[in-house]
Amino acid sequence: MMRAMVTRAGKLVVGEIPKPMPLPATVLIRVHGAAVNRADLLQKRGLYPPPPGASEILGLECSGTVEATFGNSSRFRVGDRVMALLRGGGYAEYALAEEGCVMPVPTTISLSEAAVIPEVWLTAYQLIVRVAKLQHGENIMIHAGASGVGLAASQIAKDLLGAHHIVTSCGSDSKCDASVRVGRASASVNYRSLKGSLSDAVIGAMKGERPNVLLDCIGGSVWVENLKMLDMDGRWILFGTMGGTKPPEGINLGHLLSKRVAVITSTLRNRSAEYQADLVRSFSNEVLPKLAAGKLHITIDSIYDLRDAEEAHRHVEQNENIGKVLLAGFESLEPNRQSDETLQRL
What is the residue range of the signal peptide feature (predicted)? Predict the structure, then answer.
């Protein structure tokens, strides 16, 4: 058995569940830390079910040490420091990961830092390199520039691909500052204090040029401004709907057609194991060495004890974080009476 955060009535409580056993091509990880992602908040509310066969425990990324492998064919050994992209199960003492989605943690990166890398950095890398296919010298606009994905994406766009103008949008001056200072954006626009339109502000920040690529985790509420600002043949990458799933009424699809805009949607969690493993290999070759050398920056906003996961979720839900929120304290979890009663009903 192992301790984990289990979801009951939309709340997280400490409970005991069966400890997973290594299967072929998997690695069992003793968890040091797990990062909070918005998908966790949605899954807790029943709005984002895990893929078939995935753990129902929250947590899409973690770091820790190898506890066990299946047989002797694994490239990992017990005790190795690792981080992993997960389909679920990170909010627990032990997490089972596909071996292809496990990465060694460089000696220059702490386990706490490693816990916030897999989901957001792989997402950002996938969106920019594989989905948008951003080219050297192109312009990119990124919504939520001070989020985990936003900070990773702007750094990848600049340092890996040599983007020209990198402009982000954020909801506060402090987040705009972080986007420029840490994320290395060319400029960042505070959408809450604008006197004109967001599209005009972005085009102005690009000195009259327009984005060739737009990373959109907002969705419906920015549909009109996105279309206004994008350049001809722009690539609009939709990977979240924090601002709603429906565009405003009366949208004229002719505007999309006239600009030849490509609207491309993308997710990572429900991709095949083969796809994810290939993505991890490419990321490990192209991005991880830069993270290890300190050329790209990992941003941890705050660290919460796993017992306080609900508070950590509120912090993220209220958009208070700059970068990632980390859950720690897995070793000190002890079930309480509430969790015992919960497990009797599981």
Answer: none
Q: Which CATH architecture has domain 2-117+270-345?
A: Alpha-Beta Complex (3.90)
Q: Quick: pLDDT tens for 167-177.
A: 999 999 999 99
**Alpha helices, DSSP H, located in 126-188:** 148-155, 173-181
**CATH number assigned to the domain with residue range 121-265, chosen from the 4 options 2.60.120.260, 3.40.50.720, 3.90.1570.30, 3.30.390.30:** 3.40.50.720
Pick from 140, 194, 155: nearest CA to 171: 194
Counting every residue, how long is the chain? 346
What CA–CA distance (Å, rounded) separates 76 from 98?
12
Does residue 90 contact residue 58 with C-beta atoms inside 8 Å?
yes
Structure tokens at 278: 């290939």
Distance CA 18, CA 94 (A): 10
The C-alpha R_g of the chain, in whole angstroms, comes to 20
